Amino acid sequence: MELVANNKVVGGWHKRYRHASQTTDCEMTFAIFLPDIASSGKKVPVLYWLSGLTCTDENFMQKAGAFKAANALGIAIVAPDTSPRGELIPDDNEKSYDFGLGAGFYLNATQPPFDKHYQMYDYIVKELPEIIESHFPVTTQRAISGHSMGGHGALTLGLKNSDRYTSISAFSPIVHPTRCPWGIKAFTGYLGNDKSQWEDHDAVLLMQNKQYTTARPVLVSQGSADNFLDEQLQPWHLQKAAKAHNYPLQFEQHEGYDHSYFFIASFIDQHLAFHAKYFA
Ligand SMILES: N[C@@H](CCC(=O)N[C@@H](CS)C(=O)NCC(=O)O)C(=O)O
Fold this sequence. Notes:
Layout: E1 2-9, E2 12-21, E3 26-34, H1 36-39, E4 44-50, H2 58-63, H3 67-73, E5 76-80, H4 120-135, E6 138-147, H5 149-160, E7 168-171, H6 181-191, H7 203-208, E8 218-223, H8 229-233, H9 236-244, E9 249-254, H10 261-279
The chain binds glutathione (GSH).
């Protein structure tokens, strides 16, 4: 693992690492925030943060303003990239922002030419935690959160791996990707035309079909002035599924907030406190 950035912040450390990933068969970069108590050797729990379309590990670390609260709560935060990267990694022919590089959708692609490297599900759920837990002073307590495409990732990975994550949260998530343009485009490209293969990656369907062993608590925050709300995000589908199945979903709509990191920066402390409750 190569250390590519090392910044002291609020008494803790922000670090970026590059490493060869066996899962995505390319070099990957991730960032980790370690609170100050980790420096004295105390092991801390980890929140995995999954970013949205066009992002890298840097967006959250630079814009969310999560360090002070994470430091006070004694939580490490890991922010992976949103897709495999590099010259040889296949991209969308049109180089659009919502498919290919920067848009891995946190699933294992089955369709060539994407299947070789776009294995983000296995990278996030298996390979990355193994790396984190063997190199850093962390416990095996994990929570998962994310934004937009990363909110979809947090919900689907969290629901499907309720033995691995104690709580789940999301900002402005894509909740029903089998029914919105971003999801349909990504699932067609990565998973093919057989829609039965898509169901396993749709938070609403996972909730409806009770595809979880333990109903881990979920917090979802959504801004009312989000320009993707009606066409892409449609959180009411998740609210309806949760209600129908008595799933512990805490859904909060916030007036006037948009889709940006200004919204995330406004409520990240609340999300961190939510996760800390279940780490305890
Ligand atoms: N039209 C936007 C769509 C992408 C977008 O809004 N991305 C969100 C996640 S879905 C984001 O976090 N962008 C990066 C940032 O704000 O730092 C663009 O082309 O950048």
